[in-house]
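Bug #2210: token dump truncated for Transporter?
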Amino acid sequence: MQRFCLRLSMVIMVLTLSMAGTPVHAYNLPSVNLGVTSFLDGGPPAGPGLYISQYVQRWTSDYFADGNGKRAFPDFADEDLEAWISLTQFIYQSDQAVLAGGKWGLNVIVPYVSLDASYAVPGFPEDNGAGLGDLTVGPLLQWDPVMGANGPRFMHRVELSLILPTGKYSSTKELNPGSNFFSFNPYWAGTLFITPKWTVSTRIHYLWNAKNGNPNHRLAADDSQAGQAVHLNFATAYQVLPMLRLGISGYYLKQLSDDKVDGNKQPGTKEQALGIGPGLLLHISKDAHLFFNAYFESQAENRPEGERFQLRFVYHF
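Reproduced locally. Full output below:
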């Protein structure tokens, strides 16, 4: 019994020291588009009109990285994170040009997130269960495709995305469906047709975050602010059949500035992640399209590193 108590005391001491060395202000960036979109991202698949997209994504991780990309927690933590993410998206694309030939549109995304973080021993970052995530609203401009002799050559779009703090949040939890702060997340997306069958696409975002007036309780602070970041998606696909494209897609996230707590910079809090993997696009009809993407992450810093699998169904009315 004495030996057991001594061993338990040592575990608690190591756990306390490990958590003290782990910045609780890490994992502060909001949920953003990391590989959510991929092939033919520069334009809607069937022209102007109303689109509804349904996304289902599963993300798993058993590796929480620190600022140097090393394992953040000791081996006995045996961390395991599973997230199920549902995104319901509504896009209206008009046929009315308003600026430099760009046609106005509106994008609305309603997320629902289920988080489950488990450990062999208690005391590590806790999840806040399932609930609504942060609503995204974005006015956009879509340009008509640049046409060539054999079809479209290039298409692109800009959007001023606003991430609104509508999601479930608790200051006593480290992993939340919502962020509890406003973010500005504009992007430019484009698709180049190298040949009529071979395409490359990208979407490049800038991310600015407002202050969180109710930060994690462990900070014992009045406010916190996640740093600025850039993140981008990239994809290439080849049309192997009239209704099927196969390809590779990925994403990269790089935080540019440190997080702040009560206005003070917190060195070593910048997040980073790279994900890449195979995917496909199935054209069920001219109005119905099914995407599948798998991503295997690496080079993570100050965030979990794992695997993402996603299905996306798009329908044009």
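Output looks complete on our side. Helices lie at 2-20. Marking as cannot-reproduce; reopen if the truncation happens again.
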